[in-house]
Amino acid sequence: AEFGFKRIALEEKQGLVDDVFHKVARRYDIMNDLMSGGLHRLWKDAMVSWLSPPRKGRPGSFQALDVAGGTGDIAFRIVERSDRVAQATVLDINGDMLAVGRERAVKRKLDDAVTFVEANAESLPLPDNHFDSYTIAFGLRNVPRREVAIAEAFRVLKPGGRYMCLEFSHVDMPVLDKVYDFYSFNVIPKLGQAVAGDGEPYRYLVESIRTFPNPERFAAMLGRAGFERVSYRLLSGGIAAIHSGYKL
Ligand code: SAM
Question: Which molecular function term from Gene Ontology is one that the record holds (predicted)?
Answer without folding.
Answer: demethylmenaquinone methyltransferase activity
